[in-house]
Amino acid sequence: VTTLDRVVVVGAAAAGLSAAEALRRNGFTGSLTIVGNEPHLPYDRPPLSKQVLRGDWEPERITLRKPPAFETLDAQWLLGSPATGLDGRSVTLADSRALPFDGLVIATGVTPRTLPYGHALDGVHTLRTVDDALALRAGLRAARSVVVVGAGFLGTEVAATAAALDCAVTVVDPLPAPLIRQLGKQVGELVAALHTERGVTVRCGVGVEGMTEQDGHVTGVRLGTGETAPADLVLVAIGSRPTTDWLADTEIPLDDGVLCDARCQAAPGVVAAGDVARWAHPTLGPIRIEHRMNATEQGTAAAKALLGAGEPFTPVPYFWTDQYDVKLQVYGLPSENAELHVHSGDPGEGPFAALYSVDGRVTAALAWHLPRPARQLRQFVIDNVPVREALATG
Amino acid sequence: MKVLIDQDRCVGAGQCVLAAPDVFDQRDEDGIVTLLQDRPPEAEHEQVREAGRICPALAIEVTEG
Questions:
Q1: Distance between CA A311 and CA A298 in Å, rounded?
Q2: Which of A1, A120, A214, A323 is buried most deeply by CB count within 10 Å?
Q3: Do the Cβ atoms of B31 and A378 come within 8 Å?
Q4: What is the pLDDT of residues A298-315, one digit of tens each?
Q5: Which helix (DSSP H) or strand (DSSP E) does residue A17 occupy?
Q6: Going edge to edge, which strands form the sheet with A285-287?
Q7: Which residues of B touch A297 (CB under 8 A)?
């Protein structure tokens, strides 16, 4: 086991916290410094597009630990001070401080992608942080017409929340169905129907070309069809890019994320975890997963690797999304070439379970509002069973 | 050890049941966590701690002692 004296964790959200706690739990007694670009202690992001945005929960409720747990971690917290560079074995902060380390955890997450226009206007939002969520919440309370650009998880969840707040909502995406990259076309079309039933206008297969404004406030989104969708609030939810600018021109290998081996190691004494990490999953290949479960699990795995006790990190990916009162849960990663099979239930009618297969074997499983049975589907994914065999159990 | 659950926070991921199936279960209708026992025997403690750590909704609180 490696002996470390000074570990710096860059990133103070779910993955960074998980790594810090795992370091302590696995016997690391040296100095521990946690750097966060936001001024907040670690908090949970999934509620930002739902409970916090609706106004059901205040931000205090999403703090990831109660105060005593933060204290027992015995860490130095440097919050609101983004890392700006890496100089050999030392992290540089925006305020020019240098933090020497012999172990480094990179958990800087992702940053929302933006459009080349519109973001300077009042009423145009992105959503990543709790401050973003509070600004969006205030905006939605006053908004009448909302356009959501991008029909991924974030865009569709915010559309559902905005609809519940009685806004007239339009979702626009150049792809043919919502969540198509995450769930495939057939399930994506069911998601579209769910939104349409609730009064949301779903414009898939339609690009966005610009925004209209009056006196510096957005008034609409110009679509590829030549139409303008009226909007007094626009959320741009077109995906994210890994927050790795601060690692440019360093020894850390980057390629749409921090490139890591199977043990989440990017370089000697350097590991990465969470949204920012692209690691060599032994069976799924180099992947980067922007999901809540992965942040916790990979944080733990990366910490163990840093202490020299790491094993290949081989999680069964799990994610969920809440759309209105429907919960979608997925095990594994539905790939574009996967075939969809209904396992039980009736899509379009109510709850159902489905399996995704590649070359006749189960690679992912979906539960559409069947949270308890979802767990049983997981084993099919782990065992990569022939889909015919799995369907016989439906 | 005492286990507390917060059903209002639970997102029905079922990760706790995978970690400690003798301590946690899920309601049929919505997958929300239920407790099978709130003072698990020592043999279950590590699994219960793991369940608390991996819960993606922070819905499990474990008090030692």
A1: 11
A2: A323
A3: no
A4: 999 999 999 998 899 999
A5: helix A14-25
A6: A258-260, A277-281, A285-287
A7: 54
